[in-house]
Design goal:
Elements lengths: L15 H21 L16 E5 L4 H15 L4 E8 L6 H14 L4 E5 L9 H20 L3 E3 L4 H14 L3 H4 L5 E2 L2 E2 L7 H11 L15 H16 L3 H27 L7 E3 H5 L3 H14 L9 H13 L3 E5 L3 E6 L2 E6 L5
Parallel strand pairs: 1-2, 1-4, 2-3, 4-6
Antiparallel strand pairs: 5-6, 7-10, 8-9, 9-10
Helix pairs in contact: 1-2, 1-7, 2-7, 5-8, 5-9, 9-11, 11-12
Length: 351
């Protein structure tokens, strides 16, 4: 059908999923700009400080490619100054090729791109955690070098639900059940209010080539099993479990933030002290005490990954009891409660 004489050609209608993603990114950047206005931590990276700078973490999957496509649109409009970074973990032979292809796609959309290659050594934390740590470190390095305000990642409501489910499986507390925060430091997750189905729909509608990482289907990884379990539960129970778990995260996050603020204030005078009056602990509510005690141990060099809820609860119980007692801790250390003080020291066998 030809365009009527004198009229302008109509722009193609944007599909609902892509529109939702663009709006989510816009809203997240606008909200963050209001929150951080006047912050001395900001690095003036461009002549116009009203335009935020962002590093977009892109893996090549549907979530991150849909995010990059939306950010590229905003970048071309001058609403954000973006740069894409693909982190190649080197865990599969094809990843180097995928990273280069993603970078080329980003450049074709008008967004400059880099490939960051990292080496992964899986220690006690496991392969997934080691890869995540290396990835965020590479993205933060890119952010600092570019003088950008934010790192954008493509975590969705589906990822949030999986995170909460994993926390439930571990028997974790409120902070773990709070899931991922929309903004944490310089890290922003603008798609937490959207589902994975929407990012996939956006890629389909826009003809975006995506990479389906086979590791996302490898049931050797706990998160993959959690993802499959969630899908099965929604089918079996006929309930929107993904949305409900994500809402649980929002509710828990508000509670956890409130308690963490109180614990931070209470722990300032305790942090780093080898000997603390027991009364400084026992005056605290249980929810605050557990956080303060854990922070106290970490401030004295006890590895956080070795301080599970059970060990922290044992130490809190020892302190609450006020009687003389001793509790062994990781790293050949111990806490002794005696004469009204809780004393952290090397264990006797290590001296």
């Amino acid at each position: 059908m030809s365009t009527a004489e004198g009229s302008s050609p109509r722009r193609p209608t944007l599909d609902p999923a892509s529109a939702a993603i663009r709006n989510a990114v816009r809203a997240a950047l606008a909200a963050a700009d209001e929150t951080t206005a006047g912050s001395s931590d900001a690095v003036p990276a461009v002549k116009d400080p009203s335009v935020p700078g962002a590093i977009v973490g892109v893996s090549g999957g549907a979530d991150s490619m849909a995010l990059l496509h939306a950010v590229a649109f905003l970048h071309r409009r001058g609403e954000v100054r973006a740069r894409a970074v693909t982190v190649d973990h080197g865990l599969q032979t094809v990843t180097a090729e995928v990273a280069e292809r993603v970078a080329a796609t980003s450049e074709s959309w008008g967004v400059p791109a880099d490939v960051a290659t990292v080496s992964i050594e899986a220690g006690e934390e496991g392969l997934e955690a080691a890869a995540r740590t290396a990835r965020y470190a590479a993205l933060e390095t890119a952010r600092v070098e570019a003088g950008a305000d934010w790192i954008l990642t493509a975590h969705t409501r589906s990822d949030q639900a999986e995170t909460v489910l994993l926390g439930l499986m571990r028997g974790s507390g409120t902070r773990s059940l709070a899931g991922m925060s929309p903004v944490s430091g310089h890290l922003m997750r603008p798609l937490l209010g959207l589902d994975r189905d929407q990012t996939e729909a956006s890629c389909t509608a826009q003809g975006i080539e995506i990479w389906n990482d086979p590791m996302n289907d490898d049931t050797a990884f706990t998160r993959v099993r959690a993802r499959q379990l969630l899908a099965g539960l929604e089918t079996e129970l006929g309930q929107p479990i993904t949305a409900n778990l994500a809402r649980t995260a929002d509710l828990c996050r508000a509670d956890a933030d409130f308690i963490d603020d109180r614990a931070e204030a209470a722990g300032q005078r305790i942090r780093g002290a080898a000997s603390v009056p027991v009364e400084d602990f026992t005056a605290l509510d249980d929810a605050v005490l557990s956080r303060v005690v854990r922070d106290w141990m970490i401030s004295l060099g006890v590895p956080g990954q070795n301080l599970g809820a059970k060990r922290v609860a044992e130490l809190c119980s020892l302190i609450r009891d006020r009687k003389r007692g001793r509790l062994s801790l990781p790293g050949d250390t111990e806490v002794i409660v005696s004469d009204g003080h809780a004393v952290f020291q090397l264990a006797a066998k290590a001296r």
